[in-house]
Design goal:
248 residues; alpha/beta; six-stranded mixed sheet; four-stranded antiparallel sheet; 9 helices
């Protein structure tokens, strides 16, 4: 019997400041298991900070954040427990340049999960196959294209078998022709039922994959809806203005 909490992520009245800048303002969000959330909004609206708070890369100053039933506090054990269940892909791939692709993918399972090397390598090859680059396993990051490196970063996160995946603008540093291959990988991941929160401006991806689309502005969730009404009937003027700029 699965006694895991129904909510993957719960944020209650979350506030965050950078100095005097109020970057998150009374944010409330409940993400169900297996739900796919796309977060969009103008630069500086708090999107990346919101998802970075979910695995405590940024600390919130007030409110509550509960991830997979564990509340994030200053307790390092709680933080590590959450981080072990939450995978993250950044805008920049953050791969270790001196390690092969295979070594990049096996590092955390071996050191954090105490997995035997052979089992970790089998797992890594499974996920490198899933992101369609098993033939790159023995190369170094510098030998791969940007799109391939980002797919390695996704495979590396999956090797920890996370319950939740966070994506922080995973395609914004890529050349346009490489965006498609990374988005296709993410679409396949979504089809597997992974809980996903993705900050992106790729609205085609949002339409195809998201259960809900969130629009943020000035540190607040301004609008949240299923993709069809979100794009065709936005309720707020700020949402309408933002969509008119990015939907051509």
């Amino acid at each position: 019997m699965d006694v895991a909490p129904a909510l993957a992520v719960e944020m209650v009245d979350v506030n965050k400041w950078f100095g005097s800048f109020h970057v998150l303002r009374d944010v409330n969000l409940a993400v169900r298991r297996g739900e796919r959330i796309v977060i969009c909004g103008p630069s500086g609206s708090g999107k990346s900070t919101l998802i970075r708070c979910i695995n405590r890369l940024e600390a919130h100053q007030s409110g509550r954040i509960i991830v997979d039933g564990v509340e994030l506090t200053d307790d390092m054990r709680q933080i590590e427990k959450v981080r072990s269940e939450v995978g993250m892909c950044f805008q920049h791939f953050n791969l270790f340049p001196h390690l092969t692709i295979l070594e990049n993918c096996t590092l955390a399972p071996i050191w954090v999960r105490q997995m035997p090397k052979r089992a970790a390598e089998e797992l890594a090859m499974h996920f490198l196959t899933k992101v369609r680059i098993p033939d790159q396993a023995h190369k170094y990051p510098g030998q791969l294209s940007g799109g391939q490196q980002q797919r390695v970063a996704i495979a590396r996160a999956l090797c920890m078998r996370p319950r939740i995946m966070l994506f922080d603008e995973p395609t914004s540093a890529l050349d346009p022709e490489m965006v498609k291959e990374v988005l296709e990988t993410m679409v396949e991941l979504a089809a597997d039922g992974m809980t996903m929160l993705c900050v992106t401006h790729e609205m085609g991806f949002a339409r195809q994959v998201a259960d809900r689309v969130i629009f943020m502005d000035e540190g607040q969730i301004v609008e949240m809806n299923a993709p069809e009404p979100f794009f065709s009937r936005p309720q707020h003027e700020r949402t309408k203005a933002f969509l008119s700029q990015i939907l051509h």
